[in-house]
UniProtKB/TrEMBL annotation:
This is Cytosolic protein. It comes from the Bacteria. Residues 178-290 form the Wadjet protein JetD C-terminal domain. Pfam families: JetD_C. InterPro entries: JetD_C (IPR024534). It comes from Fusibacter paucivorans.
């Protein structure tokens, strides 16, 4: 009888239930003394929380007239194997999402969870740049898992969205070339993270001191910078690369990863101008990188450093789009002086 009642409680769509409603879960010919005894046991085990103001049953002053069903307790009891399994996994893997899903989902994902666990035990949470196919193969041994399989859903369930970071593409870089670039003794290239800023600056390229304007497309630029030297093979004169991205944890990590591959000059005038704007909020899910942040901050004066630290600590950020078209040209000219 106990298991029958528990099964019905799990399926019951209300949080509050009366004793008489519980009685409907058992056959009509069930002795009332047995029902009282089982309800009392279920309540003592934590599945049912007594509603004190409902009062006790006159026939049995141990049982209340109404209870609140502890749904979370019911689910956790139903997933004891899930709880014990969680203790064996890497600390970064969270199984909480599976308590809200059918057990078959966990069983289906388990083969991938074990492979991800082995990966984290060996490599930790930090990831180096890789194509989406390489990342999928490193994690579970299937290069199509993140594109055609359930890879993205599984990583989200496990609280491992960060393993989808630093994904790069081997597509050619989108860039614009100034018509008189061949006259320059030093080629300067400005990389911008977002397409909106690329398009705003595109009309200013001809009058700038820069040979190219490059659309970074977020993390894709990490692969793109290698291809760019083949697309722009004019290495007989010096080449200087400038970077301008969103002022948030993600933009900072992109800059740091890119700088590790190709020396970058941080386009400071753009960032300082953003610090004078109204900040935005809503990117609290981004993971900070202490080393990248320290290196990024070292390019700024003390006052700007404090503003940036406070900004990020409060979960705020500055998108590149906070700068208007009319001021972008002036700020770009200032970058030439760096």
């Amino acid at each position: 009888m106990k298991h029958r009642i528990l099964r019905q409680l799990k399926q019951y769509n209300k949080k509050r239930i009366t004793f008489l409603e519980i009685c409907d879960f058992v056959p009509p010919d069930t002795p009332m003394e047995s029902v009282y005894e089982v309800v009392s046991i279920i309540a003592s085990e934590g599945y049912l929380l007594p509603t004190l103001n409902s009062g006790l049953r006159l026939e049995n002053p141990v049982v209340y007239n109404a209870y609140t069903i502890d749904k979370s307790f019911l689910k956790k009891e139903d997933y004891k194997d899930l709880q014990s399994y969680a203790l064996k996994l890497n600390k970064h893997i969270l199984l909480d999402a599976y308590y809200e899903l059918p057990k078959k989902v966990f069983k289906r994902d388990l083969i991938h969870i074990e492979k991800i666990n082995a990966y984290l035990n060996e490599n930790g949470l930090a990831v180096s740049s890789a194509t989406i196919q390489e990342r999928a193969y490193d994690l579970v041994g299937d290069e199509k898992w993140l594109i055609e399989g359930d890879g993205v859903k599984v990583l989200n369930r496990l609280g491992l969205k960060s393993l989808r970071e630093n994904i790069i593409s081997d597509e050619p870089v989108m860039f614009a070339l100034q018509s008189k670039f061949y006259e320059k003794r030093c080629h300067q290239h400005l990389i911008v993270e977002n397409k909106a800023i690329y398009l705003r600056l595109l009309t200013e390229l001809e009058t700038s001191n820069f040979s190219t304007l490059i659309f970074g497309a977020g993390w894709r630029i990490l692969a793109g910078i290698d291809l760019f030297t083949k697309q722009f093979p004019f290495q007989n004169v010096p080449n200087k690369y400038y970077y301008f991205g969103d002022l948030d944890h993600e933009g900072i990590k992109i800059y740091e990863a890119l700088n590790a591959k190709q020396a970058m000059i941080l386009a400071i005038p753009f960032y300082k101008a953003m610090l004078k704007k109204s900040r935005s909020s809503g990117k609290t899910n981004q993971l900070p990188d202490a080393y990248a942040l320290d290196h990024f901050l070292s390019h700024f004066d003390d006052e700007s450093q404090e503003k940036i630290k406070t900004l990020l600590a409060e979960g705020a950020y500055y998108p590149q789009e906070s700068l208007k078209k009319e001021e972008l040209k002036r700020l770009w000219e200032q970058c030439h002086e760096l």
